[in-house]
Specification:
The chain has two domains: about 70 residues; about 80 residues, lambda repressor-like DNA-binding domains (434 Repressor (Amino-terminal Domain), Orthogonal Bundle), CATH 1.10.260. It is an all-alpha fold and about 180 residues long. It is built from ten helices and no strands.
């Protein structure tokens, strides 16, 4: 039995009949629920390579084939990852540590943004919290959203004032002035 005969028997979508890249992907890497870490690794690597190909100048038919295939596979990859590799909540200093590692930076490299080397050390060791201004400067330096440094602050019980101030969600209340008695 030839591939063409099999395609007619399965009654493939008209798009797939003329797209050899798409049919090759479906044949060699059939879309299905991911059941093992090895399968996850294979599909993740393939998805990464296909996404890199999309950045190249491809014929429209190949581009559409890759996009259709990824549209099916990426949710399957994400579902496996959500079940098997749950992401924990990252504290601001963990986010900062990750960004420093990704950009191959040391604490001294951030002393300007954070107010000196001792401050950087205190933040990374969890002895000090990042301030709103420091977060703004870091988000500009690393080109990330300021929200990256807030560990799901809205999930916390914000009825306590210190939580709200800790995550910079409200400005400090103005000091109450005492009225002078006349």
């Amino acid at each position: 039995m030839t591939l063409q005969t099999l395609e007619r028997m399965v009654n493939l979508h008209p798009f797939a009949q003329g797209n050899t890249l798409y049919t090759g992907l479906v044949r060699d890497f059939p879309p299905s629920s991911i059941t093992s870490k090895q399968m996850h690794q294979r599909y993740s690597l393939l998805a990464g390579k296909l996404m890199a190909l999309l950045e190249d100048d491809l014929p429209a038919k190949d581009r559409e084939g890759i996009e259709r295939y990824l549209k099916v596979m990426i949710p399957l990859i994400r579902a496996f990852e959500a079940e098997n590799f749950p992401a924990g909540k990252a504290e601001p200093e963990d986010v900062l540590r990750f960004l420093m590692e990704q950009h191959e930076l040391k604490g001294v490299d951030l002393s300007k943004e954070l107010g000196g080397q001792p401050v950087v050390s205190c933040i990374l060791n969890g002895k000090r919290r990042l301030t709103r201004d420091q977060i703004k400067r870091l988000s500009n330096r690393f080109n990330v959203s300021e929200a990256s440094f807030y560990p799901d602050a809205l999930d916390k019980d914000l009825s306590y004032g210190h939580d709200r101030h800790l995550y910079g969600l409200v400005k400090d209340a103005p000091a109450k002035r005492k009225r002078a008695k006349k």
